[in-house]
Write a structure and sequence with these properties.
This protein is of the alpha/beta class and 395 residues long. The protein has 16 helices and eight strands.
Length: 395
């Protein structure tokens, strides 16, 4: 068990009609002029955006709207939001949507007062010293961005597109409103990608060399089992409120650091996937499913007992007391079968619809390793050659 500092300051308002608290919550956290940030047309068609606008008007809070956020949120939209905030004197950001919208808000928050280009922060070359406060109304449970300190942005203003993260506690939302009813109309693909993403947030923390944090492990295993059980129910019956609520809350618990207290997270699969979605603009959850099995087989020898425990406690595999390796492999296969059962790909070919080339693998490995100079992962530290090998295994 390692020392840890657990910080989760976000106020969660969960349940039916929770969006009616929007105006009072913005006021509570000091908002006097709001940038209302959202994605496509779903927030408009559902009537949620209109409800939020009415709430702000009733509270006497002026606002400016900015839509158009897409999956793998773009730097160009962030730049647009920063300019609006500076021009309009915005002092509070309100995201209506999923992780992409929230991540875009976080980037705008960090760039509002920053003298340079906000992308410099995502390149980890500098840190902002002042941020705009953020609230969110979650409509897509997946990324966990509503309670996390991280943001991932795709730079669409350079050739070859780059996808990078920036993580600071100032990114943690002041409040998160969660009404599971607004997730009823999510397409099955988007729901499945979300389930995969939230599971991977826990699995990145779970697969560690730190084996002596029993309560954290038990919490992580419970979140994973819940995602699988309730995930199937939601896909079979999209308007099952109870299952939608379980999934929505699991997404937050998976990424508010609770399932990583006292352990060292790995995050290699996420880093590998960022290059996939940066190059091919694929859904993040699907990319994670395509990469995880190959990563797991490449690193499992670093802590075989951990993979065997996962197989037994999460995937329900019978323990093979003669071979930890066979138990671990059975668990990896069971996880891949679950991904397939919810419509997720388990290799790159199925993800992008064609064979990936060696040149594309080399490019992704170079980007992931910062030109061959960096490493990823903690369970097993991976260099550029390791990354390329995992991509090849996932072909």
């Amino acid at each position: 068990m390692i020392d840890f500092n657990y910080y989760a300051p976000t106020q969660v308002v969960f349940g039916k009609d929770s969006e009616s608290k929007t105006g009072s919550l913005v006021k509570q956290y000091g908002g006097t002029k709001v940038l209302l940030h959202y994605g496509g047309q779903s927030a408009v068609k559902s009537g949620l955006l209109q409800k939020v606008e009415d709430q702000l008007r009733e509270a006497g809070i002026p606002f400016v709207t900015l839509g158009g956020v897409v999956p793998n949120p773009r730097l160009s939209k962030v730049h647009e939001g920063i300019e609006i905030c500076r021009r309009e004197g915005i002092d509070f950001l309100l995201a209506v949507g999923g992780g992409s919208v929230i991540d875009s808000c976080k980037a705008i928050s960090s760039g509002r007062y920053y003298d340079g280009d906000v992308w410099t922060l995502y390149e980890h070359k500098d840190h902002a010293t002042q941020y705009l406060p953020i609230g969110c109304i979650l409509t897509i449970p997946a990324a966990g961005s509503e309670m996390s300190n991280g943001s991932v942005i795709t730079n669409d203003e350079v050739d070859g597109w780059l996808k990078k993260d920036y993580c600071v506690d100032e990114f943690r939302c002041k409040f998160a409103i969660m009404n599971p009813e607004y997730t009823y109309t999510l397409p099955s693909w988007q729901t499945a990608c979300g389930i995969t993403d939230m599971m991977m947030h826990t699995m990145e923390r779970y697969f560690s060399k730190d084996d002596d944090m029993e309560i954290t492990d038990a919490l992580a295993e419970a979140v994973l089992r819940t995602c699988m059980t309730e995930g199937h129910k939601v896909l079979e019956n999209p308007t099952d409120y109870t299952s939608r609520a379980q999934i929505m809350w699991a997404g937050s618990l998976a990424h508010n650091d609770l399932t990583g207290c006292g352990t060292t997270g790995d995050w290699a699969t996420h880093n590998l996937e960022h290059e996939l979605s940066g190059m091919f603009d694929v859904s993040h959850g699907a990319g994670l499913a395509a990469m995880w099995g190959s990563w797991a087989r490449y690193v499992r020898s670093e802590n075989m007992s951990r993979f065997a425990r996962f197989a037994v406690n999460v995937m329900g595999v019978k323990q093979n007391f003669r071979s930890l390796e066979e138990t671990a492999e059975a668990g990896i296969q069971a996880m891949e079968r679950f991904f397939e059962s919810i419509g997720m790909p388990t290799n790159i070919h199925d993800l992008i619809g064609r064979e990936i080339t060696d040149a594309e693998i080399e490019e992704m490995a170079l980007k992931c390793s910062n030109g061959g100079n960096g490493t990823i992962g903690c369970l097993k530290v991976l260099g550029c050659k390791d990354m390329a090998e995992i991509y090849k295994m996932a072909k």
